[in-house]
Amino acid sequence: MAVASASPLSAAPSAKPATAPSPPAPASGFLALRARSGGAPRLRPVAAWRRLRVEAIRTQQEKQRTEVPVEDSAPARDAAAPLDGVGIDDPMVPSSDEGWVVRLEQSFNIFATESMIMVLDGVYRDRNYARFFVLETIARVPYFAFISVLHMYETFGWWRRADYLKVHFAQSWNEFHHLSIMEELGGDALWIDCFLARFMAFFYYFMTVAMYMVSPRMAYHFSECVERHAYSTYDKFLKLHEEELKRLPAPEAALNYYLNEDLYLFDEFQSARIPCSRRPKIDNLYDVFVNIRDDEAEHCKTMKACQTHGIRSPHSMPNCLEADSECAIPEDDCEGIIVYKVQNFDDILSFFYVTFFK
């Protein structure tokens, strides 16, 4: 889908003419450090302190990499490209190698995703940060739904998968920080944007819960479609506004998350990578969006794995490759309770009898 080619600063009020006696007013809604006519911008005390803090964290991370290098014998799994097999120009189409049930599920998911894209295109044609705020609000909902259903399965003693809970929580934690970044950039400045995002998220949550209980495979594919659209959106945005973004500082929320000393949850949601194989670099706003885009790629890989061979926590088997025999995940891990346990009417009766009365 196309991303508007307008400047990312289009939502901010325009600066005064150069002939005006007073300096231009700062942009509203996010941290914009404007260069003054005399040359390089002057750093305020808060900005100078933040820059010093970032440099200290970066120095400490470089020291840790030197002391504890990542083992070369355990390369990242499918991590050579940001999103292997899912390019920005590849259309979302149902898989021709699957059965008719899977193709039907995928067709519905693609139709629903494209309908949502049409709404976003019409409402947020040239308001990028507001669009990103809505997109991140929606994108984190499925992980709440997955965790809710998995907790219910544990409560009834049906299904216990700690790795799924860990990975899905780490995914929601990552999306939460994406949302915080968009809020700091001014994406939630208008109440109508907040209302639309939360209205869509409310119904999306209950739809995902029902879908996940009936067919986890379908729910994971739906989330993959949303993450794939997010990757494409950020990738196009970066190509259109690269020079502008490189002149702007990184938001505080991005610095606190990507340069944090504790990146356990950052590694946890990237099930296609070994821990510590990816460490973000944040020098400006462009770097922030590059990392957000790459995060969406990792989400997409994880959702793809959930539909096929299942997932394990990256920290539970850090040196495990998908080809290793000890890393094989049972097929049951990819099925939900209803799909896996219920095959016919007799199974339905016995299923509820054993669950509630025995």
TrEMBL record:
Cited InterPro entries: AOX, AOX_sf
Highest rank taxon of the organism: Eukaryota
Compositionally biased region (Low complexity): 1-19
Keywords, sorted A to Z: Electron transport, Iron, Membrane, Metal-binding, Oxidoreductase, Respiratory chain, Transmembrane, Transmembrane helix, Transport
Enzymatic reactions: 2 a ubiquinol + O2 = 2 a ubiquinone + 2 H2O
A Gene Ontology BP annotation from the UniProt entry: carotenoid biosynthetic process
Cofactor binding: number and manner: Binds 2 iron ions per subunit.
Full protein name: Ubiquinol oxidase
